[in-house]
Design brief:
Elements (H helix, E strand, L loop, with lengths): L1 E5 L9 H15 L3 E7 L14 E5 L1 E4 L2 E7 L3 H10 L4 E4 L4 H12 L4 E4 L4 H7 L6 H13 L4 E3 L2 H9 L5 E3 L16 H6 L8 E5 L8 H14 L4 E5 L5 H7 L4 E4 L3 H10 L2 E4 L8 H8 L3 E5 L2 H6 L7 E3 L4 H13 L1 H11 L8 H18 L4
Parallel strand pairs: 1-2, 1-6, 2-3, 6-7, 7-8, 8-9, 10-11, 10-13, 11-12, 13-14, 14-15
Antiparallel strand pairs: 4-5
Helix pairs in contact: 1-15, 2-3, 4-5, 8-13
Length: 380
């Protein structure tokens, strides 16, 4: 297949969407498909240094106000139509719904190209976190319009597909998230790294990995940590990642270790060297960090939705709390802090839950879905 993938976030940016489509692009290229990525210009590699599996075409963009780590793609209908007339892709897949993604849908339809899309981020839910709650309905209407102009919209779970269907989204399918079980493995546990954290062999370490932004529910996360620390003063808390809240959190929580940004390979060592993962966010479409933590053999606790609902068997390989009960999640976390036997039992069973969630299997299903969309032809 000759595929054009349009996205406003892509490696080296670090977030679930960038990581997912970095892996998908690489694997599709290795399977013999021609893959070209269209993304906003940022830290672009010289042409000679681009990965052999795919080609990146940079387009105009701008930093997101208040969030310089990410960029917003500007509308590029004319540029895309000219490029696609010269080298006509068999299918266009739009990953993000910003101005660039929306213009890509329009360009593909104008050229009568099959076009599909992905729903990865609950932007309408984020309006509350960033002080724009009155715009929630307008944002949802925009997302629905962009996606319903494509032949099929892929979401990470069937649960989310059902929610989107109820909100008026059409032609939905599942594109799950895989986990790299070589990168995320208990075998990567590093006593030296734990020593750098100030943790002894029997001192529990709570890890947090991710984008440090308001939608990640840090108020609850640090309240949970404080309760866990009261229950077990030997506990350590380590955070890896970056984002607009990082400097504020460092000032507010000097007792925590902020490790900064690390590569995918290095972060696997961080996961494996911890013991507990508390997932306090309520706005994920999937939650890659939870599956990465489970694959790394951590005792996990989170709210009962998205990846947690799909992979955690409560009391067997992890713990879950109802989404409207933050106090229950806090109590479960305190239980993990106190009970070494419980931690060990959950850690021993966690990795097995991801046995059928390898990236090759996930991408193979997506590959077949894209081939079916090409065979069906462009929608009227």
């Amino acid at each position: 297949m000759n595929l054009a993938i349009v996205t406003e976030t892509f490696p080296p940016e670090v977030n679930g969407v960038a990581m997912t489509f970095g892996l998908i692009a690489r694997e599709l290229g290795r399977r013999g498909h021609r893959v070209r990525i269209y993304r906003p210009r940022r830290h672009d590699l010289p042409a000679a240094d681009q990965p052999p599996e795919y080609h990146v075409t940079p387009l105009p963009g701008m930093a997101i106000p208040g969030y310089p780590l990410l960029r917003l793609g500007l509308p590029a209908r004319g540029r895309l139509q000219r490029a696609w007339r010269q080298d006509r892709p068999e299918l266009v897949h739009v990953v993000t719904e910003g101005p660039l993604g929306a213009s890509a849908v329009t360009a593909a339809r104008a050229l009568h190209l099959p076009v599909t899309s992905s729903f990865h981020t609950n932007f309408h839910a984020y309006t509350h976190n960033y002080g724009f709650a009155p715009l929630r309905r307008a944002v949802l209407a925009w997302l629905r319009r962009v996606h319903n102009r494509t032949q099929r919209t892929f979401a990470p779970t069937q649960e989310l597909c059902d929610e989107l269907s109820a909100a008026g989204f059409a032609n939905l399918g599942v594109l799950s998230r895989g986990v790299d079980t070589a990168c995320f493995s208990p075998d990567r546990r590093d006593p030296q790294l734990r020593s750098e954290w100030g943790a002894g062999p029997d001192d529990p370490v709570v890890l947090h990995v991710g984008r440090m932004a308001p939608e990640k529910n840090y108020t609850l996360l640090f309240a949970i940590y404080a309760a866990m620390r009261r229950a077990n003063p030997r506990l350590r808390f380590v955070l890896a990642g970056d984002g607009p809240l990082r400097e504020t959190l460092i000032r507010q929580h000097p007792d925590c270790r902020f490790a900064g940004f690390y590569s995918r390979e290095e972060i696997g060592r961080y996961y494996a060297s911890a013991d507990i993962y508390i997932h306090a966010s309520l706005t994920e479409t999937f939650g890659n960090v939870l599956t990465e933590a489970m694959a790394s053999g951590l005792a996990v606790a989170g709210f009962d939705y998205a990846a947690a609902r799909q992979f955690i068997r409560p009391g067997i390989n992890g713990l879950v709390a109802p989404c409207d009960q933050p106090g229950t999640l806090l109590n479960l976390a305190v239980e993990l802090a106190r009970d070494a036997d419980l931690r060990q039992r959950l850690r021993s069973a966690a990795r097995a839950a991801l046995a059928d969630q390898s990236w090759p299997q996930v991408i193979g299903r997506f590959e077949a879905d894209l081939a079916a969309a090409i065979a069906a032809g462009p929608q009227p």
